[in-house]
Amino acid sequence: MLDTALRILLPQQCFACGAGSGDGVLCRACLESLPGIGLARCPVCALPALEAQTCGACLAHVRPYEATLAALDYAFPVDRIVQALKYAHRLAVLRLLIDLLARQPVPEADLVVPMPLHEARLRQRGFNQAAELARPLARRWGLPVLLDGVVRDLDTRPQAGLPWGERVANMRGAFRVRRPLKGLRIVVLDDVMTTGATLAELALSLKAAGAARVENRIVARTPPPA
């Protein structure tokens, strides 16, 4: 009854177009037209691919992770929603992102690992958005979540401010795994994938700790440069 009363007294506006959206972040029209929803993607790197076949880049260069599933493209309004979560503490958008990720098949895995933040970045932001995604999704999937078993030792420069070619070097040696993962299948949760350098470095660290397989689940994939 309280929820119904609040929706009547405080109707919410769609984050993208400003129309009435009830109790949702987006109105129905914007939700159904989100960029990249239902797009055929390479099963390894999640870039657009004909008939969802492995792309030429992934065939030519083996990735340290086995699979990547992306719910959306990182374009308007998804980019604004993710930025509002990370930089404006709009935690209300989490429910939308979690629901979109939950539309994907349940992973065949043993453990969920959120992308860790360096302690300095965590103090500054106040929360780890990847962990906030991982906890409810792990419950839905019936999987345990490892919140403190992987740490980010290096306070690297933000990847978003670097040229594509410098991102791999920027992330080298950034992660440390603090428990054995021998034979475990890992699902990594993160918000955005651009070049994949951060996810690749984390996958290398997880494999070095014994992980048998690493699969990424991300909210949005940055489209390739034109």
UniProtKB/TrEMBL annotation:
Top-rank taxon: Bacteria
UniProt domain Double zinc ribbon: residue ranges: 5-59
Gene3D superfamilies listed in its UniProt record: 3.40.50.2020
Family affiliation: Belongs to the ComF/GntX family.
Record-given protein name: ComF family protein
